Amino acid sequence: MRAYRGHLVHITGAPSLEQAGDHLVSAPDGVLVVDDDGVIAYSGEYVGMPWHIAPEEVVDHRPGFLLPGFVDTHIHYPQTFCTDSFGGGQLLDWLQRCIFPAEATLADAAVAQRTARAFCRRRIEVGTTTALVFGSAFPDAQDALFTESLAAGLRTISGRGIQTVGPQAAAPLLTSERAAIELSVQEINRWHGADAADPAEALVQVAVMPRFALSVTDHTLIALGELYDSVRGQGVYFHSHLSENFHEIAAVRAAFGVRDYLDTYDGRLGDSAAPTLLGPRSVLAHGVHCTGRELARMADTGTSIAHCPTSQQFLGSGTMPWRRTTASGVTVALGSDVGAGDEWLMARVLNDCFKVHISAPDGAGLSIPPAQLLFTATLAGARALDLADRVGNLDEGKEADFIVIDPQRQSLLPEQLDRAEDAGAMLFTLLLGLREPSIVEVFVRGRRLTAAEAA
Prior knowledge:
Elements: E1 2-11, E2 24-34, E3 40-45, E4 57-68, E5 70-76, H1 91-104, H2 109-125, E6 128-134, H3 139-152, E7 155-159, E8 161-162, H4 177-191, E9 204-210, H5 218-231, E10 237-242, H6 246-256, E11 282-286, H7 292-301, E12 304-307, H8 309-314, H9 322-327, E13 332-334, H10 346-358, H11 370-377, H12 379-384, E14 402-405, H13 413-419, H14 423-433, E15 439-444, E16 447-449
Parallel strand pairs: 1-4, 5-6, 6-7, 7-9, 8-9, 9-10, 10-11, 11-12, 12-13
Antiparallel strand pairs: 1-2, 2-3, 4-14, 14-15, 15-16
Helix pairs in contact: 2-3, 4-5, 10-11, 11-14, 13-14
């Protein structure tokens, strides 16, 4: 047993978004006791630690903070070096001018290896312990990602980026439909739960990931639905993009003849009765411009949205209607969307989240409470990834994924925190004011991760 003493902050239990404030734990002299299996044996006030728990060591981080590791539900590994790339336009222009050419460089195994190491290093540096990672088109690059993730000790769910059609700029990333299915099957067989006898207990897992509807044909989507139907019971995930940009939505409707964008992932393609790709382990990025029908269908199937406010600003995609989307019953988690998102640190993405929604037009603006912000970057992400029984908060029995924050590493932040009048105000200051230097330690399953090991 080892104990970590500090200001313990997390959202306990299994609340809804609206209940997060009632479940906020803020224990200025708190402690986490972690057993040899990396499981939390005690979480709470230091003075309340049971007498029978005798940790071999107590690491005192006071006045620092102990928070759950951040969960990023949408981030692009092949775009590690693409943040702030000027594409001269919105989504579709940016993809052709910046992203497709950059992602094509990962065909070089040496480039892929360097990118995978840099990607894992950055995740550790910013305290992102769990991530749903949009992968590379190239199998060797995916092998590098999974290998480096396991070496670093990170939780990673990823899948190769599937593209069977696209513009000339995407040509190096394209495969035939048959190859797309075969390569996806090979990736699932090789990497899904590769580090554990039971995939549900693994650090690395696999997702089926078409880039977006416009990157495949209706025949490919039907084939992917059949593939996913055959592996869904193994806990394989599905991940793609949805309704990010008005031009994208119009192009999808024209290309597929569907009523709603979501129909392309729901097996509603012409007269075909294809299996749906939606479900409790399906996460769709953005969902900025969803119809009421789409939101209701996602809620009914347990499909989640990865909300990416930073990238939506960068690409001029608009603002996801927070009130309407969360009221639909859909789980809304947070995504950095690196590289259209230029912030790796999830607290910075929360900073953008707060700002864009308080400024939402047409009477839709609101001030998101601090507990709901923390929930969105931790427990909601774990819920969207069907991992809430293992991670997402610091409850007893959960696996010990947490970060240590030392506000003394930042000028003015300690004084700002001291001025906070209550736990909510303190949390708001901490989340919106947090910068990378203050994240001093990162743990997954009780193991301390170091960026140097991922370098």
